[in-house]
Specification:
The protein is mainly alpha-helical. The protein has one domain. The protein contains 14 helices and 2 strands, in the order αααααααααββααααα. Strands 1-2 form a two-stranded antiparallel sheet. Strand 1 and strand 2 form a beta hairpin. It is globular, with a radius of gyration of 21 Å.
């Protein structure tokens, strides 16, 4: 029952979150900072009340380790959101972030000296090929859409390249954070809800450096047309409504993932999150009629098939179906 509820929260929360994020980004492409700040503030306040017990509960993992993790987490969040302001379409943004397995494998080999099976390398090759196809086709679209003049076309393409560089940096930084988090959990035990709170609370002072941008977008949000909120009956600027819904759905999504990590195996969590990304991508393409060619679909298929291969879902299902007694004994 808990698992089904968690899966429902993940799909409902994350898919809705993508819609509201794109609604925000389409009206004001540079609004990533105010979106990130609102999400961090909400989760930090909720965690301070219910997890930190109004500051009375001591953290299980020393604060100095959280400070390192938070620096990486804050950087990844800001860079990922800012990439939307650099000619990066939402579907490409989502596909690129689905390549986290590549970054994890590369850094695992370099930092942890890990070695992988042939099937793992094959799956990563598929993911890499899928991302390359989608990126290449998006580059052609940017070039063709910006062919009003040679100057404008080159400028748009340069911004797009900067966006790809930003996404690549965020991908590698996120993988490095995952490795660091893994070593912490091995040393101090799993405290995912505590980590969720500190990852969102400690970076809040860093938003001082983004205060002017957040303030400017708050003024822009105030100028948007009024929207009558259903049920509540309150009228507020529609951009603030989109932001509130984005924050709420993000919280629902994160809570769903947290419940999954405590109720299911890591393999199940990876599978659910991967399928959620795919459904979110379909939502974005169909709802907003984003340009998506057959090449994009091919690249997307490579990414998700490669991800499922990496998690060894088929092998796991085969083992659980043919050897139920052994699985029971392990548990």
């Amino acid at each position: 029952m808990h698992q089904a509820c968690a899966v429902g929260l993940v799909f409902a929360g994350c898919c809705s979150n993508v819609i509201f994020l794109e609604l925000l980004a389409r009206r004001h492409p540079g609004c990533g900072n105010i979106v990130t700040f609102a999400q961090f503030l909400f989760i930090a306040v909720e965690g301070f009340i219910f997890e930190a017990n109004l500051g009375r509960k001591r953290p299980a993992i020393p604060i100095r380790y959280y400070a390192i993790m938070v620096t990486m987490f804050f950087t990844v969040s800001v860079v990922n959101n800012y990439a939307l302001n650099l000619n990066i379409a939402m579907p490409l943004h989502m596909i690129f972030r689905s390549g986290s397995l590549i970054a994890n494998m590369i850094l695992g080999i370099i930092i942890l000296k890990k070695r992988y099976s042939v099937s793992k390398y094959t799956s990563i090759a598929l993911v890499s090929m899928g991302i390359f196809i989608c990126t290449f086709m998006s580059a052609k679209q940017v070039a063709s859409q910006s062919s009003l003049s040679e100057n404008e076309g080159f400028q748009a393409f340069a911004w797009w390249l900067l966006g790809i560089a930003a996404l690549t940096f965020a991908l590698l930084m996120s993988a490095r954070m995952g490795i660091f988090q893994e070593t912490l959990y091995k040393q101090f035990g799993k405290h995912s809800k505590e980590a969720l709170f500190y990852n969102h609370a400690l970076p809040l002072p860093g938003f001082i450096f983004l205060a002017s941008d957040i303030y400017d977008h708050a003024l822009l949000f105030n100028k948007s047309e009024l929207y009558q909120v259903p049920v509540v009956g309150v009228a507020l600027p529609i951009m603030w409504f989109y932001l509130l819904m984005n924050v709420f759905t993000q919280y629902v999504c994160i809570r769903g993932v947290f419940i999954l990590t405590t109720e299911c195996t890591s393999l199940t969590v990876t599978l659910v999150v991967t399928l959620r990304k795919f459904v979110s991508l379909i939502f974005s393409i169909l709802y907003f009629q984003n340009p998506f060619t057959l090449w994009h679909w091919l690249g997307t298929m490579f990414v998700f098939v490669g991800t499922l291969m990496y998690t060894e879902v088929w092998n796991s299902l085969g083992v659980s179906g043919s050897q139920p007694q052994k699985e029971d004994k392990k548990d």
